[in-house]
Design brief:
With 71 residues, this protein is mostly helical. 79% of the residues lie in helices and 0% in strands. The protein has four helices and no strands.
Length: 71
């Protein structure tokens, strides 16, 4: 989803930007990959993951082994 270059290396950063400016296929490929990755962080996706987590936690808290350990 991106091009890597060493931190603080301005020449490498410039080269990465120029590569994207000159290469529409690479630019489109990286753009598609970035959009796909970003979709994992949409409100719907994040809320769904939290709901699954909370359900698992509630199921675990309600299990007899946990109730006996707490009580």
């Amino acid at each position: 989803t991106g091009l890597l270059y060493p931190p603080g290396d301005e020449a490498a950063a410039t080269g990465a930007v120029l590569r994207l400016l000159r290469d529409p296929v690479a630019r489109a490929t990286l753009g598609r990959a970035a959009r796909a990755r970003a979709s994992r962080f949409s409100a719907v996706a994040v809320v769904s993951r939290y709901e699954r987590l909370y359900r698992r936690l509630l199921e675990t808290a309600a299990s007899p082994a946990v109730t006996e350990a707490v009580g």
